[in-house]
Design a protein that fits this description.
Shape: globular
Helix content: 40-55%
Radius of gyration: 18 Å
Domain HTH luxR-type: 144-209
Mean pLDDT: 85
Protein name: Transcriptional regulatory protein DegU
Distance between the termini: 33 Å
CATH superfamily of the largest domain: Response regulator
Domain Response regulatory: 4-121
Number of strands: 5
Largest sheet: 5 strands, parallel
InterPro entries: CheY-like_superfamily, EvgA-like, NreC/VraR/RcsB-like_REC, Sig_transdc_resp-reg_C-effctor, Sig_transdc_resp-reg_receiver, Tscrpt_reg_LuxR_C
Number of domains: 2
GO molecular function: DNA binding
Length: 219
């Protein structure tokens, strides 16, 4: 079987090393590369089928867990493995909670990384050894995550554009639909999230995006 993998990483040297390691370890793979969330989205739209996305959390166009949330919302059938320089247990557990099929620290040796990818392609979840448990957190985030999961891909796209500060007219132009259509989407989003306006909706999304990772800078 020929596996199709997309590596999303904005550092060329690390991306190149990862490509080489996977090509040597896995004989039947086709690898595409993306260096930003926009490039990843374009690649996913162009590919007929994708078996795995390797995702750096803070690629250009993403913040916190927003790229992971976007992928799990729009492409729930594609496994996503996070590869990150952030190795705190809270970040790893949160990534899995948000739908990642694995979490590989960037400090991992390449043979560990390729073994992890093989394991996920076989349908398993891969986590670092000796991962520390974290204290059970308030269920508020989980409840909101479940609500966001009910959004359609187009509604989620509108929500992220609202987060970016775009007005209804700008979103309508970007998505090539009418402004009335965007207003209808916004109304549906507010209803599903249990909020009253765009400010509250954006705050809820930002709380999920920035939780546990906002104080660090990924490399």
């Amino acid at each position: 079987m020929n596996y199709r993998i997309i590596i999303t990483e904005d550092h060329p040297l690390f991306r190149s090393a990862l490509v080489n390691a996977l090509e040597q370890a896995l004989s039947e793979i086709t690898i595409s590369e993306a260096s930003s969330l926009d490039e990843l989205t374009q690649t996913l739209e162009q590919e007929e089928s994708v078996d795995l996305v390797l995702l750096d959390l803070l690629i250009p166009g993403a913040q916190g867990f927003s790229a992971l949330l976007t992928l799990r919302n729009q492409y729930p059938e594609i496994p996503v493995v996070v590869i990150s320089a952030r190795e705190e247990a809270t970040v790893i557990h949160k990534a899995i909670e948000y739908g990642a099929s694995g979490f590989i620290p960037k400090s991992s040796p390449l043979d560990v990384l390729t073994s992890a990818v093989s394991q996920v392609l076989d349908g398993d979840i891969w986590l670092p050894e000796n991962l520390e448990p974290v204290a059970e957190e308030d269920s508020t985030d989980n409840a909101m995550l479940e609500k966001i999961a009910t959004l359609t891909p187009q509604q989620f796209r509108v929500l992220t554009m609202l987060r970016d500060g775009l007005r209804n007219k700008q979103i309508a132009w970007e998505l090539d639909v009418s402004e009335a259509c965007i207003k209808a989407h916004a109304t549906a989003i507010f209803r599903k999230l249990g909020v009253n306006n765009r400010t509250q909706a954006v705050i809820e999304l930002q709380n999920l995006e920035l939780d546990t990772i906002q104080d660090g800078v990924e490399s």
